[in-house]
Amino acid sequence: MMFKRILTLRTPNSLSFLTTKTSFDTGISSTSKVISRTLSEQSTDIDIDIEKWDLLSAVCLERHPVITKSMLDIETRFHNMLQQAEFENSTISDFEMQKQNNKNRKTIQDFEDSWKEEFTNFKFAERISENEEDNAVMSLRRKLDKNLVLLVEQKIGNSNFWIPPQSIRKHRETMIQTAHRTVQELCGNNIKVKFYGNAPIGFYQYKYPKNLQERGQNGAKIFYFLAKYVSGDISSEIKHCWLDREELKKNLHPDLHKSLVKFLLPD
Amino acid sequence: MIGVLNLANAAFRASLISSSHNISTYIHPLYFRATEVLLGEPLKKKKRLDPAVVRAREERKRKKLQKRIRQLEKHANHMKPIFEIDTLPELLQNEKRTRHLSVPLSEKEIERRKSLEKEWCKYKHSQWTKDLHVINSIIKSQEIALKELKAVSKQLYKKAVEFDDLYMPYSVTGPVYTPSIKNYDNPDGEYIETTVKYIGE
């Protein structure tokens, strides 16, 4: 018996709706279909599309900035002005009054000197890390003032691509579960991440080449989840790199980059 | 009569000595019978306190309480001082204190500050519009993703938009000016306890 179904698809680039009529032979009578639906919780909706499209979850893992960005010219100028106005409007403090008294000026000067010395002797960590010059893309300590995205080298078809870690959804998994599994399988158990929600934030789809399509699969639908790096390290031996926004543009496929930029905060 | 009593006595004693040859006369309610031996001593007599001592004790207790009440009443009008507030009028009264700015600003400087403020406003506005664009783009991207998911499977969509408690208490430690020093040994500070204990506290 023919089972007709109307599938509404939406292409990612154009916002127009594309309505396709797909009909296929299920080989089961409609009554038995109803029974199987009541018996098993899983609706047949899932299976219909899984036959046509591969569902993938991908994780955009970000390392957020560790240090603040250096101020722009206008920001520095305004900052200085505010500081000056603040100083001008404030009254003289007790300490300054003591300092104005000629009696113990010397001891106060000594105090100030010792404090200054303590401050200059303290070594702060460098704002510019050594890794920046080395361009060690594997390191998490590079470009501390920027958002970095994790890319891994994964095999798609016959060639390797640098993409955010992704994997195909397994049966009975929700998309977020697939995303969690992806991080664990590709990056190891040593890394701690925090997801920004169960709902996918980005979408990208592509069609498989003709010879693959004939086998039944049209293409892949990738749902992107945003996550932030908390602690730990990538323990598996997968080839990976942490890239900032500009490097991302150079290393990603242009179409994929277009759909990622939609939800990634710009620098 | 005496003979009967003697006999009874003998029988009683016999019952005490050997329990195997018990002779019992307890057949009729009117007959005599032997009570069980009580192996105990009478209770100790309660020690009686001298009423004067008791009175003295109570008196002492009352006096102690009264003293405490008197102490509290003495300081009833005296509030526990809040230093942060107390020092403020002191500062206001002190007229000697001057501001850091001794000479008024020049025309040129005032003009410079005004123009800088205008520039700052423009800069913040452009920043704000950029932020709006970014937020809009993110929302749109998520809407598209969710619509696609809904088209694929209603169930997966439902799972994705379900409320999840896990995300709610969200905390983040922001970026800092200088990164943390690796393996930094934090020295213990010294402090002097200066907290004052007030009466009634």
TrEMBL record, chain A:
Q: Name one GO molecular function term.
A: structural constituent of ribosome
Instruction: Report the GO terms under cellular component.
Output: mitochondrial inner membrane; mitochondrial large ribosomal subunit
Q: Specify the superkingdom.
A: Eukaryota
- Keywords for this entry? Mitochondrion, Ribonucleoprotein, Ribosomal protein, Transit peptide
Q: Where in the cell is it found?
A: Mitochondrion
- The answer on whether this UniProt entry bears the keyword Hydrolase reads no
Fetch the Pfam families from UniProt.
Answer: MRP-L46
What InterPro entries does this protein's entry cite?
NUDIX_hydrolase-like_dom_sf, Ribosomal_mL46, Ribosomal_mL46_N, Ribosomal_mL46_NUDIX
- PANTHER family, from UniProt? 39S RIBOSOMAL PROTEIN L46, MITOCHONDRIAL PRECURSOR-RELATED, LARGE RIBOSOMAL SUBUNIT PROTEIN ML46
| Full protein name | Large ribosomal subunit protein mL46
Q: What is its main location?
A: mitochondrion
Family, as annotated: Belongs to the mitochondrion-specific ribosomal protein mL46 family.
Q: Which residues form the Large ribosomal subunit protein mL46 N-terminal domain?
A: 53-120
Q: Does the keyword Transit peptide apply?
A: yes
Check the UniProt entry and state the signal peptide residues, or none. Answer: none
Automatic annotation (TrEMBL), chain B:
Which UniProt keywords are listed? Mitochondrion, Ribonucleoprotein, Ribosomal protein, Transit peptide
**A Pfam family reported for this protein in Swiss-Prot or TrEMBL:** MRP-L28
- Broad class of the protein's primary localization: mitochondrion
Where found? Mitochondrion
GO CC annotations, alphabetized: mitochondrial large ribosomal subunit
Domain of life of the organism in this record?
A: Eukaryota
Checking PANTHER family in the record gives: 39S RIBOSOMAL PROTEIN L40, MITOCHONDRIAL, LARGE RIBOSOMAL SUBUNIT PROTEIN ML40
Q: Which family does this protein fall into?
A: Belongs to the mitochondrion-specific ribosomal protein mL40 family.
UniProt protein name: Large ribosomal subunit protein mL40
What is the source species?
Answer: Melipona quadrifasciata
